[in-house]
Structure formats: structure tokens, C-alpha cells
Specification:
Elements (H helix, E strand, L loop, with lengths): L24 H4 L8 H7 L9 E14 L9 E16 L4 E3 L7 E14 L5 E12 L2 E2 L2 E2 L2 E8 L3 E11 L16 E2 L35 H5 L3 H7 L3 E11 L6 E3 L1 H6 L1 E15 L5 E15 L2 E13 L2
Antiparallel strand pairs: 1-2, 1-15, 2-4, 3-4, 4-5, 5-8, 6-7, 8-9, 9-11, 9-12, 10-15, 11-13, 13-14, 14-15
Amino acid sequence: MSDSNSIRAGAPGAVTISGGDQGSSANNSGLFRAASAHQETAERLGPLQDLPGFWEGIGFGLIARPNFSGGNENGIFLQLNILRETIEFTPIGSPVFNRGSLQGDIALYGLTYLHRVTDAATGAALHIEPGLWLNIPPTTEPASDRTIARLATIPHGNSICTVGHPEDVVFQGLPEIPPANTVPFAIGGDAPPPGTKNPFPEYDLSVVSNFRTDPLPAEITQALVDDPNVLLRNALQGQTLTKIIRLITSTTPAGGIENIPFIVENVNAPSLESVFAIETVESSQGNTFLQLQYSQTALLNFRGKSYPHVTVGTLIKAF
């Protein structure tokens, strides 16, 4: 090693640092990111550009999980939780290049995120999810307008990739939020229409059950169990929204969910679909703040049925 203490890496795009009289800043100028690159990257997040920061709020989760005790002929335990949630989004500070063979290369821009969920009543840990959101430009192979993608890893042993599109919502007053189905249905069949009576007594709060969360938080009502999106509509009451961008994605175009073998055999999770709505809210004082509402449904397959695992939440951008 010479007195110049040079450090070199041969990989494409790697930084080369030279000391002493060897090398010049002019020769290396192309290897360092321009100061304007961070701002340019933020702008190219497109429909994701309001996500960076720290969000916190309240949600609701419904999951029928397998019960192996043999005490319930339906083989389920219905877990119901009021949730306390945080999500932190951090922009990726450079473009991510995908190399093309049938068309030219494309540059993706995105964010990493960490979603933490605890039980609002007990503080017990319920969920942690590291992941990515990506803004994908239009492509010719395949022929597609701009798309978005959400990638997530769940510590149960699931790896998820959802793909979809952003939507600027046109609305008057408050937006319509369709119901979320919680009624189980045959694996491979269609979800029942809204208003279908749930045949499982665990979902009927008027029926005493040893196979349902107890004690039940006062905020959990029959209306909420039948349609978790009630929580989202209630949160909007009295608010004035001036802008909504929906991020609508599903695993269907991405091939489903990858699960560890235990999950595949015991309670397979084949699909997930979600809607995240970035809402600009105007307060009565004329100030504005950002609100994130989401509703997602993962199907859990066991005992011949698909059980909707529905999670919803309303979070405010704090920082």
C-alpha cells in the first residue's frame, strides 16, 4: 500500500477514493451523487411523495385463527383487537434500476417502511412489518401505465408482493368506502355479497363463546365485526377532506404470497389486497394535516374455508 492510502472497489457504480497527489476530484466527480439528487428522488416518488415521515393512530383487527384444542367443532378462535399503530416511511435516496431485455432499463423510486402494531388495551405486541413501496414508471414490456408495488415481510413466515395503481379520488363531501367482508367462504369460491349473514356463532357478539376474545373492548361492536370499514367511516365524520390519493394493490398480478411450509400445511395465506388512502384534511381553523387510512384483507385457508383476516386503521402524520 502506498502513502496515498487509496481505497478502490471494482464493482460497477462503486466509489473510488484516492488520497495524496494521485487522482483528482475532476476524475472522480461522476462517482458522487449531486446535491440535487435527493430532492429529485423525492419528486419522483409520485403518488408516494406524501408518505415519508412518522404516522401514528388507531385501528381494528379481525382474524379467525385455527383452534387445535378440539373444543370447538368449527375449529376456530375469533381474535378481535383494537390496535395502536405506527408506520415510519423513509425515502430510498437514489433510483433503483431494473435492467431490460425486451425494452430499455427503467428507474424505480421508493420508500422503506416499518409498521408496528400493539393491542390498544394491553400493550401486547401483535405485528411488525418491514417493507417497501415502489413507484414504477410506464413500461412497454409488459404494456402498462405507471404502477405501484408494496413489498412486505411478516415474521410468521410470509413474503408478500402486491402490485396495483394509484387513484386520485373525485368526491363531494366524504368519500364512499365500500364494506369489507368478514364472512368465511369456500376455498376458491367468491366472497359473499354485502349483508350476507355470518353462519359462525363466534362472529355473533350476542352469543356467548369461549372461542372469541374476552374481555371484549367496548369499542368493538357487532357493526364493526360485520364490516371493519365502519371504523374508517366513523373517523371521517366531521372532517373536511380536500384531497385523496388511493394506493390500490393486490397480490393477484404478482403471483400470491410465499409462505413457509408450516403455514402452507396448516393455515395457508394465498392472497392479500389492500387500499391505502392518503388524505389531506382541513381543520376548522383552516389548517391542513395528512391522514392515512387503510383497509386490507388477507385470506387464510384451512378446514375447507377461506377466512378473511381484515385489518383497518386511521393514522395521522406526526413528523
